[in-house]
């Protein structure tokens, strides 16, 4: 599906979708438990993949009419799956579920779509083997399809921290139900650290204790997953809120009122500070979980995405509208997502007339040297690229057609419907 966006002014009230990161973890944590009720869950292509994995391990996931998930778990003892675990395009699913597969007394096979089969999994496979399991890439290149055989019982493991924080999350979640627990020594500095903070916060809500140490992280074994009253509520998603705030900052004279923005461990809450530093009018009522944002003249800034990789596409679009240069630093790990998001934003914004300088660990957007013009751009089958390019279309000169827009279902189902409700001129092509 393609969508065409005509320059538009937006205004009104928008509610953030639930957090994808929290929803993945909440579904799997309920699987590790006897079961749980997960409220306000994001039901998207990615999170459905995690739910299917829980069912293949012996649990059940039933979605109620109000969106609540009623989950019966496998109580820390996953069955050997009767079928291949298809993670579709969800790297989070593959990495978190690989840890659960290492607990099963037998062999699990994990695969996904073409994009997912190109992403690095090697360090996690090596960690599982170090813990006494057997894990390998069928092609011998550290990429899916993966074969994982358990059961592991815990122990000490070393792993790099600069490839994916999801490796640490996977081991912590699985380690809590091993006999010995797992102690993780980080070989390198941890990037995307707030995502591990999300994990430890959610584990605590499920009654599981995991701690940071001088060398990494540790989780004691023999623990049980059990949220208070058997229920867990997913907070709003700040990765998705970033698109709403950016829309307000570049295309809303009257302002956008965002609901569902309660504070949490999400690193992407940094977007509030970023749009404010760039010059937008922003007010965050943390107690009520609302943010008001409106358009202003934006100025380029320097932003590190070391801990907030998912914000790079949004920041790149803001930079295309801003005066001066926007330097997005510590960005190399953003190249290993659904697509190489550094190159994707440089190339697609370039199609729209934006001047950029791309280095391995840096993307600079030269706003003052750019004339943002409508064009046909490739969404790269990546939900975050698609939404960020759509925002650029709100203020570009002429029509912008974004190709492959169905992929927003990964994290923000209804994104284009919401843009239209806010006043954007959106046409399905």
Automatic annotation (TrEMBL):
The first-level EC class reads transferase
Q: What is its EC number?
A: 2.5.1.19
Q: Give me the reactions it catalyses.
A: 3-phosphoshikimate + phosphoenolpyruvate = 5-O-(1-carboxyvinyl)-3-phosphoshikimate + phosphate
Database matches in InterPro entries: Enolpyruvate_Tfrase_dom (IPR001986), Enolpyruvate_Tfrase_sf (IPR036968), EPSP_synthase (IPR006264), EPSP_synthase_CS (IPR023193), RNA3'P_cycl/enolpyr_Trfase_a/b (IPR013792)
User: Which CDD domains does the record match to this protein?
Assistant: EPSP_synthase
Alphabetical GO biological process terms: amino acid biosynthetic process; aromatic amino acid family biosynthetic process; chorismate biosynthetic process
> Pathway, per Swiss-Prot/TrEMBL?
Metabolic intermediate biosynthesis; chorismate biosynthesis; chorismate from D-erythrose 4-phosphate and phosphoenolpyruvate: step 6/7
Protein's cellular compartments: Cytoplasm
Q: Where does phosphoenolpyruvate bind?
A: 20, 91, 119, 166, 341, 384
**In this protein, which residues make up the domain named Enolpyruvate transferase?**
7-418
Which terms in the GO cellular component ontology are assigned? cytoplasm
Q: Does the keyword Transferase apply?
A: yes
- Catalytic residues as annotated in Swiss-Prot or TrEMBL: 310
* UniProt keyword list: Amino-acid biosynthesis, Aromatic amino acid biosynthesis, Cytoplasm, Transferase
A GO MF annotation of the entry reads: 3-phosphoshikimate 1-carboxyvinyltransferase activity
Kindly report the protein's main subcellular placement as a broad class: cytoplasm
- The residues that hold 3-phosphoshikimate are 20-21, 25, 164-166, 192, 310, 337
Q: Which family does it belong to?
A: Belongs to the EPSP synthase family.
Record PANTHER family: AROM/DEHYDROQUINATE SYNTHASE, PENTAFUNCTIONAL AROM POLYPEPTIDE
Q: What does this protein do?
A: Catalyzes the transfer of the enolpyruvyl moiety of phosphoenolpyruvate (PEP) to the 5-hydroxyl of shikimate-3-phosphate (S3P) to produce enolpyruvyl shikimate-3-phosphate and inorganic phosphate.
Q: How does it assemble?
A: Monomer.
Name the chain's protein: 3-phosphoshikimate 1-carboxyvinyltransferase
User: Organism source for this protein?
Assistant: Natronolimnobius baerhuensis
Q: Where is the organism placed in the taxonomic lineage, from the top?
A: Archaea, Methanobacteriati, Methanobacteriota, Stenosarchaea group, Halobacteria
């Amino acid at each position: 599906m393609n969508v065409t966006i005509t320059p538009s002014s937006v205004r009104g009230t928008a509610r953030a979708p639930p957090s994808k990161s929290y929803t993945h973890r909440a579904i799997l944590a309920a699987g590790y438990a006897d079961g749980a009720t997960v409220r306000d869950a994001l039901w998207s292509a990615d999170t459905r993949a995690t739910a299917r994995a829980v069912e293949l391990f012996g649990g059940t996931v039933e979605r109620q009419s109000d969106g609540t998930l009623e989950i019966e778990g496998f109580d820390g003892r996953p069955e050997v799956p009767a079928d291949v675990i298809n993670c579709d395009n969800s790297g989070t699913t593959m990495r978190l579920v690989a840890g659960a597969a290492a607990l099963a007394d037998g062999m699990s096979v994990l695969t996904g779509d073409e994009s997912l089969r190109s992403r690095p999994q090697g360090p996690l496979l090596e960690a599982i083997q170090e813990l006494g399991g057997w894990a390998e890439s069928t092609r011998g290149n550290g990429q899916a399809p993966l074969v994982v055989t358990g059961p592991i019982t815990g122990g000490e493991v070393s792993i790099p921290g600069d490839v994916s924080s999801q490796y640490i999350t996977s081991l912590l979640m699985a380690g809590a139900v091993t006999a010995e627990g797992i102690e993780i020594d980080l070989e390198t500095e941890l990037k995307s650290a707030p995502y591990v903070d999300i994990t430890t916060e959610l584990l605590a809500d499920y009654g599981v204790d995991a701690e940071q140490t001088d060398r990494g992280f540790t989780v004691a074994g023999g623990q049980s997953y059990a949220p208070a009253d058997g229920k867990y509520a997913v907070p709003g998603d700040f990765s998705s809120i970033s698109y709403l705030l950016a829309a307000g900052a570049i295309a809303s004279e009257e302002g956008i009122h965002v609901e569902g923005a309660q504070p949490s461990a999400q690193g992407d809450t940094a977007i509030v500070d970023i749009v404010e530093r760039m010059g937008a009018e922003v007010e965050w009522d943390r107690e009520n979980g609302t943010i008001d944002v409106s358009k202003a003249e934006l100025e380029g800034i320097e932003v590190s995405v070391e801990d907030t990789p998912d914000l790079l596409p949004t920041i790149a679009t803001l930079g295309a509208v801003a005066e001066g240069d926007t330097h997005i630093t510590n960005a190399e790990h953003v190249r290993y997502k659904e697509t190489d998001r550094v190159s994707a934003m440089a190339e697609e914004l370039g199609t729209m007339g934006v001047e950029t300088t791309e280095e391995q660990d840096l993307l600079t957007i030269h706003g003052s040297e750019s004339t943002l013009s409508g064009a046909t751009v490739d969404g790269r089958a990546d939900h975050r690229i698609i939404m960020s390019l759509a925002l650029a279309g709100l203020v570009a000169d002429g029509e912008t057609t974004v190709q492959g827009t169905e992929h927003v279902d990964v994290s923000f189902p209804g994104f284009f419907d919401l843009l239209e409700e806010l006043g954007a001129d959106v046409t399905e092509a």
